[in-house]
Amino acid sequence: MVIIIVQVILIVMFGISVTMKLLRTRSMVQHWKEYRYPMWFMNVVALLELAGVIGLLAAF
Question: Where are the domains of the chain?
Answer without folding.
Answer: 2-58
